Structure formats: C-alpha cells, structure tokens
Amino acid sequence: MTLSAKYLSSAAVSALAGTLVFAAPAAAQDTESTGASEGGLTEIIVTAQRREENLQDVPVSVTAISDDQLEALSSSGQDIRALSGRVPSLLVESSFGRTFPRFYIRGLGNTDFDFNAAQPVSLVYDDVVLENPILKGFPIFDMQQVEVLRGPQGTLFGRNTPAGIVKFDSVKPGDEAGGYARVSFGRFNNINAEGAVGGPLGDNVSVRLSGLYQRQDDYVDNVLPSGTTKDAFGGYDDMAFRLQAAVRPSDDFEILLTGQLRDLDGTARLFRANNFTRGQEGLNANFDRDSVSVDGQNEQSVKTQNASARMTWDVGPVSLISVTSYWHGTSTSVGDVDGGFGANFLPPALYGPGDIPFTAETRDSVPELEQFTQELRIASNGNGPVSYQAGIFYFDESLSILSENYSTLGDPLNAPGGVNIVVSQDQQSKALGVFGSVTVDLSDQLSVTGGIRYNDDERDFTVVRSQDSQFPTFLQNPLGTVTRSVSDDTITWDASVAYEASDDINLYARVARGYRAPSIQGRILFPPATATPLEDGVSVAGSETITSYEAGIKSTLLDGRARINLSGFLYDLNDAQLTAVGGNVNANRLINADNVRGYGFELDAELVPVDNLYLTAGLSYNHTEIQDTGLTTAACGGTRVDTFPDVSLCTILDPIVTPAAPFSAAIVNIDGNRLPQSPRWIANWTAKYAIPAGEGEFYVFTDWSYRSRINFFLYESVEFQDASQLEGGVRVGYDTDTFELAAFVRNITNDTSPVSGIDFNNLTAMVNEPRVWGVSAGIKF
C-alpha cells in the first residue's frame, strides 16, 4: 500500500467508524432482497445444513450474500476474488489472476500454485463440490445467494472442508415467465453484461437461460530497451452460460437438468520484478501500476463445461435426492515469472528492473480435467421433533498437467525462448463418503444435532521430466516415470446444541472434526541439489485433521430492526498440510506441521435505524500459530551478489538454521509463525440510503472492506508482507420495479497494496486491482 493511500485509508476508517460500530456482510441495491424491508429486516433463509432454515436458527457460523449484493461487487467486471474480505474471516487471492482462486477461512488455506493443489476450503456449486482450482474460478452470475460456512463441514459436505465452505445457489427455473438484463460500462472499456430469461414450457417443464459476459481492454504498457508497447497487458474476455430445465413428471418427482460452460482468454497475473526493496516494507519507486518491463508472454485461457442432473422424489415421510455431475476443463497460463527482462550476465542496459539473476518464464497447462460426482441422499420430511438425513457420495477425478520452463534471454520480440524443461503429471483421485445426521428437538426451546461421516480417499500420481538440447547432458534427467500413491480413511463428525433463549435470541455450541485428504506435489521444473533430483522433487503430505470448538449467539433486536450474530472459536489442526514456497527455484514442497492452533471471533450485524437507511457490518479476529519446534523451510533465494556476504534475497526475520550461500537459500525455523495470507483482522461495512421518488427511489450505496497485516509465505521477512488493505466502492442510482440506472466507482481511493510475491529470483510483487468507474443500466421483466 502506498503512503498516500494509507493516509486516505486512515481518514476513511475514522469517518466510517463513527457511522458503524459493527462490521459485516456486503449490502446491496435492493434492500428487501438483502434482508431489509420497510420498517425492519426480513428473514434470511439458508441451506447450510442441506435443508431450508432461518439463518438465526442454524447452529453454525454462516453469512449469506444475495445476488443483489454480488451485483454491487462485480459492477466493474470483478471475478470471484471480489468476495475477499466481504464476510468475516474470508480472504481470496490468486497468483494467476481471474483463474485459480485460493480461499482462506479462519486463516486456513493453501498458497500452493500448482493445478493439483488441495485446498481446505471447499466450493459447493448447486450441491456439487468443485475440487480443482480452475473449476473454483467459475464465474458468479444469476445467483439466488452465496453462503459462507465457517468451521469444519465434514459431515454433510465431506472431505477437504476443515476450514469451511463457500456455497453457491443459482436461481432455478420458475413457474412464471420473467428475467432481467443489466450491463455496465467503465474505465479501460470495461463491460459487465449479465442476464437471464425463463419460464414454463407447458404444464410440467420450466427452463431458465442465464449468461455473463465480462471484458476489458489491455491498459498496462510494456517498457523495454527496444521500445514501449502500449496497452500490452491487463485485458480479458470472459463469458459463461447456464441452461436449466426443471421437469416434473408428477407432483412428487422433479428432475433438474443443468448445462453450463465458461470461456476465458486474457492476461495472466502480472509479475513485477524488484518492486520491493531489500530491507524495506512496501512497494518502491520501480512500481507503476500502468506499466511493466517483461520480455516474456503473459496470457491465460480457461474452458470448462458441466452437465448435471438433480432428481428429487417425495415419497411421503422422506425425500430421495440424487445429484449427478460431470465437469470437464482445460487451461493454459503463461507467465514471465522473473517479472523483468534479460539477466545480469548481459550488459546492464539489457536487464532489469533491478537485478535479474536468471530468466524464467513458465507455461502451466491442464490438457485434460474430468470430474465426476454422484450423491444419493435420503432426508426426512415434516415438522416432527426428529429430522434426519443420510447418504453416500462418490468422487472421481482425472487430471493431466503440463509444465514448461522457458529461457527468454532478453528477447526483444517478447516471445518465449527455447523450452528447456518439460514436466508431465497425471493424477487420479477417488473418494467415497457415507454420512448421516440427525436433529432432535428435546423441547420447544432446546435441540441437539449429531452427525458422522466415513471418508475413504485414494490418489495415484505419476510424473516425468525431460529437457531439451539447450542444457548439457549431465543436466538431463532420463530417470523414467516417478509414481506416488496415497490413501487414507477416517471418520469426521459434528455435534451441536441450540437453545432458544427467547423469540429473538438463540444460543448455540458446536464441536466438529474435519479432514483434508493426503496430497501429492510434483513440481520438478528445476533439478534439486540432491543425489536423486527427480525423486526428491516429489513431495507428499499426509492427512490433516481438525478439531474445532465454537459457540455463538444470534439475536434479532429493536423490534426486528437489528440483527447481530456473534461467534467465538478455537481449533487445533493436527498434521497440518502446509506448502513451502521458497528457496532458490520456482518450486513447491508439501510438509506436515505437528499442529496449528487457531482462535478468534466473528461478528455479523445488520441495522435499519430509520426507514430507508440500511447498514451492515462484519468483523473477525483470527489468531493462527504453527506449533512444531523442529519445522524448517527454505527462505527466499540466495542469489544476491550485491549484498555479499549476506546473499539472501530478503531480510529474514525467523531463526536461521543454515545460512544462505550463493545460489543456495537459507534454511529457517518457522515454529511460532502465523499462517500465510492470515490477517488477524478482517472488517467490512456498508450503508445504503434511499429516497422514494415517483415509481422508484434514488439511492446511495457504499461498501468497504479492510484486512490487517499478512505474510505471503510460511517464513517471515521484512519485504514479503503487507501492513493493511482498505478498499471501498460507491454506487449512486435510481431504481424501480422494472429498471435501474446507476453510476459506480470500485476501489474508490485507488488503494495500491501488494497481495503476494515471488521470492526465488528477485523481489517480485503482485498487486490488487486498480480503481474502476462507470455507469450501469438494468431492466427486470
């Protein structure tokens, strides 16, 4: 974050703190659909426990975000990362840009940047889990709402949910014809167009077609000694469609068929060489948001397709549900990961900015991804004192990954040099889950819930590396194919108690055990300094388990004008799977830590102090600590020669076990460190004021999110962290039942914050999105 932006941030925080003392989920244009109505708040229905319930009755820490709230966040064409910081304890970032989002809840996430990365936050899209990171980036459009469930969700949602889940529910076909269309135009020729149309086709069939188109021009110049290419990077074309058909052969049987796809082409994440200064925190004078200096390509494409069928059969006392889904995807991402041009063995005018020890450009591709899931579930009907559900779940994924390393060698044509390393990976994953959950109402005020799930996971991995003739024979690695297989089975469970203290106050307590299946990592683009380089380039992390304790209060106050929900939690994550990103090469290594301890709280609040004024807020505190006295990892690259005898790329803050040497990174102890991308504080707040006029209303809406200091990696250094980030938006418009006109600004203070970095070659930064302004129009029919 720049100095001027931090002063603006402080001023904005002070001004808004006087208005709101809580903090919260994002708000929206349509107050009724986001929880507010004339005279008070409306009920929010969630499906956090796989059945429809009032948010206030659910014994889980959960925040719901409506489609109208999402519209405010995505006005400027933002992708799924727009959710970051908009609910307590949630952070989202990516080193790829609009693809491969990484989610963190309560500090738990995974910084791994490889396509087979296993994350502890699961995405569930219309009752279907999306496992692979390129699927998790599927655009958000035509949504009924999004729910963020915090804490382990292993009973009902299965594996890889020790941190929680983000649950998306799209608008389904209805019995009445209707739809909407809205489009916005903004800075950089940004277009965000979204719409849907649907209705009945005869007596027993309803359909809904929805789509999203987002595009932006290139706006970042590429400045090289050979000349400047104007508007070389930063643009994208991203489109997605969904077609749904609801077929009702009888009153008690329904089939929902869904087909959807995504097609993205655009700029990959821009890496900015030496935008950090050794020994200093924050971006330096090399940083210019509107320009880079790279001699490699920087582009990405993603294509995904999905077909699914959900069948529901009401047989009286119970319902039988089947959810079948197939996903297919391909992806390519090319990045100049050294973030600059040339290398320091060339004349000084031919490399930069700053010191570039060696050139590095990578292409990571997914030639083929297939995911098949099947769930069969039985759920009780009725309103009796006992409700239950049970089921079986099957998961099958086939994944191919191709990773290539190039040497650009200061190519003035901005084209890749020769391929010097190629790595091919294939991974087969299978999982089985059998689960059940029951809730018993012991009285009108007291209920208890218990659930259990059996999990069985298998993963087979193969990898082979080849090198071309650019490299000497002794660096070739014809060691054949390396294989790894992992498997595990375990029990996850949860138990909770809910007590209705009054009509307006509910108390709950919950304990849960979650699980992340064993993982394999085989990024072996560079030869490790070992006797068996190919073998040692593959790492395995065993299963991690979490035991979480949570208690909370959910209250509706001021005659329905205020809703305040507060939860506190404590967890122990045993055998925590961590990704060690660092060292002297662009590598990942999986490790298990003995334990990670976490604790904190979350606060959600909504308030209608007077008619036509709607306020929301959210606040979370998360403390995380790695507890493993002997755990070490490589720190930043040991490639500096200008600071000899200290050759470390960065200023290390952790205890050094083995000092750095030229082209050999320091080994440091990370016991006691907090997790990467784990801010202690996340806050958000919104305000909307409407003035009735004619058939509609004029409104002003503003939303803000804040996060405190983050580290980028497992180790700690002066350079690879950011002190804080504050982003806000404003929307002003006129809205009726049939149309809306508005003007908006996103990142209104033009906050500039590093969100991550690359540490193996130079002090490379990645930054947040720039300020975007524009106008929008929409119709409803």
UniProtKB/TrEMBL annotation:
<dbReference type="InterPro" id="IPR012910">
    <property type="entry name" value="Plug_dom"/>
</dbReference>
<feature type="domain" description="TonB-dependent receptor-like beta-barrel">
    <location>
        <begin position="269"/>
        <end position="748"/>
    </location>
</feature>
<comment type="similarity">
    <text>Belongs to the TonB-dependent receptor family.</text>
</comment>
<keyword id="KW-0408">Iron</keyword>
<keyword id="KW-0410">Iron transport</keyword>
<dbReference type="InterPro" id="IPR039426">
    <property type="entry name" value="TonB-dep_rcpt-like"/>
</dbReference>
<feature type="short sequence motif" description="TonB C-terminal box">
    <location>
        <begin position="764"/>
        <end position="781"/>
    </location>
</feature>
<feature type="signal peptide">
    <location>
        <begin position="1"/>
        <end position="23"/>
    </location>
</feature>
<keyword id="KW-0798">TonB box</keyword>
<protein>
    <submittedName>
        <fullName>TonB-dependent receptor</fullName>
    </submittedName>
</protein>
<dbReference type="InterPro" id="IPR036942">
    <property type="entry name" value="Beta-barrel_TonB_sf"/>
</dbReference>
<feature type="domain" description="TonB-dependent receptor plug">
    <location>
        <begin position="55"/>
        <end position="165"/>
    </location>
</feature>
<dbReference type="InterPro" id="IPR010917">
    <property type="entry name" value="TonB_rcpt_CS"/>
</dbReference>
<keyword id="KW-1134">Transmembrane beta strand</keyword>
<keyword id="KW-0406">Ion transport</keyword>
<keyword id="KW-0732">Signal</keyword>
<dbReference type="InterPro" id="IPR000531">
    <property type="entry name" value="Beta-barrel_TonB"/>
</dbReference>
<dbReference type="GO" id="GO:0006826">
    <property type="term" value="P:iron ion transport"/>
</dbReference>
<keyword id="KW-0813">Transport</keyword>
<keyword id="KW-0675">Receptor</keyword>
<keyword id="KW-0998">Cell outer membrane</keyword>
<keyword id="KW-0472">Membrane</keyword>
<dbReference type="GO" id="GO:0009279">
    <property type="term" value="C:cell outer membrane"/>
</dbReference>
<dbReference type="Pfam" id="PF07715">
    <property type="entry name" value="Plug"/>
</dbReference>
<keyword id="KW-0812">Transmembrane</keyword>
<dbReference type="Pfam" id="PF00593">
    <property type="entry name" value="TonB_dep_Rec_b-barrel"/>
</dbReference>
